[in-house]
Amino acid sequence: MKWRLSTDDRTRKCGPIEVSTIAFADHERAAAYFWSFMVDRSVRFLPERLAPVFFSTLVELIAHGADPAAYRAGLVVLGRLYRRFGLHSYHGTVIAAAVVDTVRRFAGDSWGPESAGVWEQGCFRVLRLAEQCAEMLGDGSQVMFGVVESVVSASGCVAVVTVRPVRRLHYVPGDAVPVCSPRLPGRWRWLSPANAPRPDGTVEFHVSVVPGGVVSPVLVRQVVAGELLWLGPPCEVGLSLTAVGGADLLLVAGGTGLAPLRALVEQVAASPGGRRVTLVVGVRRLGGLYDAAALDGLQREHGEWLTVVVVLSGDGSADPVARGSLLGSVLHHYEAGQAVLVCGPPEFVREARTWLPIGGIEPDDLHVAVTFQRGFDVDAWASRQRHTDTAVVETSEGSGADGVSGVAS
């Protein structure tokens, strides 16, 4: 395995600027070496089976940080492991030594005279952030493994990935889960379950190939049934029904942002309580409506309180009633007092946050999914987690159940 660092210039060669994509077998060897280094020094907090998760996540966070959503997903995973195994600041010395020694061993010619110091300082920085994240998250669902039961192509660039966690994944509809494939170890992405908790514990994720993305093409086109995925702790990302009380719902989905909103519809279906729900789904063309069968089924079964509206923004041949702007359709269907929940690609969420209040939706009625692209998003997300984490466990156990847009980049 080669940890190839950027060689754009001599001054950057020693820094962890770019980690190459690693074959799983090589990564396993590196993680085993990392784990053995610590065990040889009588540091045994980390079970061997979780060494690849801990090591790859730590190294990825040291080496990358350009994508704030992916970075936050990795920190959530590392923070939960940090708390689970009772780590303290003084553990950082041996962990940093193990990282430096492992990367040096596998870096080959990429290792320069200043590399050790850069990696060591990067490790300390990430561990400090993980410690803060551990405190924020509190206790709750642990990092676990899941077996892929099926990968079904839903359209040209969207796949429905069904996973069976080895232990029940405690979440509530609207949550997002850090997900990682060992094919790209350490590269975590947020995915939202598209179903309310099921008796069999399976979780359905909707993944769309993002142009230029690294993780999404692997999940859609390479991962197959029988493989393992790594699953981080579910987090509340602004789409929980807890915050909206008993208000009627106007759910607004762009792309695979439909996933968590469909889960919310299933949650309401379990105990409707007189609540009315309008689900507005935006796609460019009818062929892009990848979950049409499920939506048809929900509409047929719950038509007395559920209305599904499909908006086609780029199909000139479609029925004029279905054509138009997604946000314009939202304003058309909005009624005062409704709670408006929005999920989709980050750019769509930004537009909704800006234009829907201008169009007349009360700011207190608008709930948009966290994208982690703004400091305010991160602060608001952080303030929710500890309270929500406890609520997730209580709700899930009480019911006997499991690009935050649903898109992995």
TrEMBL record:
* Domain FAD-binding FR-type per the UniProt entry, residue ranges: 141-250
Give the species: Micromonospora wenchangensis
Query: Superkingdom of this entry's organism?
Result: Bacteria
For this protein, the record's SUPFAM superfamilies field holds:
Ferredoxin reductase-like, C-terminal NADP-linked domain, Riboflavin synthase domain-like
Instruction: Quote the PANTHER family the UniProt record gives.
Output: NADH OXIDOREDUCTASE HCR, PROTEIN RFBI
Q: Name its co-factor(s).
A: FAD
GO MF entries: 2 iron, 2 sulfur cluster binding; oxidoreductase activity
Q: Does the keyword Iron-sulfur apply?
A: yes
- State the protein's name: Oxidoreductase
Biased composition, class Low complexity, residue ranges = 396-409
**UniProt keyword annotation of Metal-binding present:** yes
Entries under Gene3D superfamilies matching the protein: Nucleotide-binding domain of ferredoxin-NADP reductase (FNR) module, Translation factors
